[in-house]
Amino acid sequence: MKSFDLRQFRVITLEDVENAVRAGAKELLVQSRAILTPSAKDAITAKGLSIKGGSCDVCASTGGGCVSCSGSSASSSAPTASEWDKILNSPEAEKIKEEIVAVGKKLWMRQYVDGNGGNISYRIAENAVICTPTLTSKADLKTTDMCLVDLDGKQLAGSAARTSEILLHLEIYKAVPEAKSCVHCHPAHATAYAITGRVPITCVIPEFEVFIGKVALSPYETPGTKKFAETVIPYVKKHNTVLLANHGIICWADTVTHAEWFVEVTDTYCWTLMLANQLGSPITHITPEKNDDLLELKKKLGLPDARHDITDLQECALCDLPEFPGGIAVVPNPISGGPAIGGSGGASGSDVDAIVKSVTDAVMAALGSK
Ligand SMILES: [Zn+2]
C-alpha cells in the first residue's frame, strides 16, 4: 500500500490530502493528535484512504490517526501560532469566512443587527472556532477580519480582536457536538418576545414547527460575561433557538447559512403572531395529530425538539407552553371545538397534507443543497 507521509504537519488540511491523492497514496501517515480539518476528513472518507499514526497518549489508540481526540487535550505539544494560522487560512476556512461575510450582510439587510451588534461563528476543528471580530458592523465584515479561538475563548489566530460574546457560542459548542455554527443577533420581533419574557406559541405554522418548534428563554445576565454564556446551557441540547431575556436571540445549526435561516424563521414567526394577534380573532392551531406528522419529519431530519421526548401527543397542551404562560396568541376555545386546522371548522385534512408535503419538499431540497 502506497503511504504518504504527513507526519511533519500538526494541522492537516484538504490541500494536504489532495496532494497525497495526486501522488497516488492509499494510506496517510500522520502524527498522533494531528488536527484534521473537516474537509480533510471528508476527503479521506470519500477517497477511501486509511490513516496510520503513532499511538496516542490521550486515547491510547494505535494506528488510527486519533482523529477523535484531535487537538482536544491540553498537552505540551499544542499547535503553534503558525499552525493555527494555517487552519484560519486553509481553503475550507476561506469558504467558511466568505459564508460568514454573506450571512453578516443578510443580518444587516434584514435589520437583525444594529451598530456593531450580533456575532457569527463556525467550529472548524474540535477545539478551534472561527468567529467575527468585535466592534464591526455585520454589513462591513471582510474575510480578513475573522478570528480563530479555542473553546475557552482564547484567541489563536487573526489580527482583529474576537467578539466579546464568543463565550456564549462556545458554551453551545461544548454542550452540543452537532452544533457547527452559531448566529447571535437582535431581531426586533423575536427580541420583543425576549424583553417581555415570552416565547412564541407552537402548533401554528408548519415551517416553524419543523425548523424551530419550541423556543427556550434563558434568564438575563450581563452580555459578554461567562455567567451570561452559561445561561443557555440547560436549553441548547433540545432547542436550536434560544431567546435571551432582555437581549436577543441565538440559533445553532450544521452550517452558518442554516443558523441564519433559523433566525429568519423565528423572527418572521414572532412578527406573524403579533400581526395575527392584532386582528383580534383566535389563532387557529394545527391539530396534535397533524403536528405529530411534522415532529416525525423533524426527528428524521435530526433537528432537536423538546417534544421528541413526549410520547403522548393526543393532548395538545404543547401549544400552551405551560412553563411560559405568557404566549401571546389566543388558544382556540376547547368548548366550541376550536377553529383548529384539521378539526371542525378549520382547513381540511387534505389542505394540511398539502402543507406538510410542501414543507417536506422544501426541507429536503434545502438539505440536498448544503
Ligand atoms: Zn447581543
Run of helices and strands: EEHEEHEHHEEEEHEHHEHEEHHH
**Rg, Cα atoms, Å:** 23 Å
Q: What is the share of helical residues?
A: 25-40%
Please state the structural category. alpha/beta
Low-confidence stretches: 55-76, 320-348
Bound molecules: zinc ion
Q: How many β-strand runs?
A: 13
> Kindly, what is the distance between the CA atoms of the first and last residues, rounded to a whole number of angstroms?
34 Å
Strand order within the widest beta sheet: 9-8-7-6-10-13-12-11
Number of helical elements: 11
C-alpha geometry: globular
Portion of residues in beta strands equals: 5-15%
Question: How would you sum up the major sheet?
Answer: 8 strands, mixed
Q: Mean pLDDT across all residues, rounded?
A: 82
Overall description:
Strand 6 and strand 7 form a beta hairpin. The model is unreliable at 55-76 and 320-348 (pLDDT under 50). This protein has helices at 14-22, 38-46, 81-88, 91-109, 166-175, 188-195, 206-211, 226-230, 256-279, 288-300, 349-368; strands at residues 3-5, 11-12, 27-30, 35-36, 50-53, 119-125, 128-131, 147-149, 155-157, 181-185, 216-218, 241-244, 248-253. The protein is 35% helix and 14% strand. Bound molecules: zinc ion.
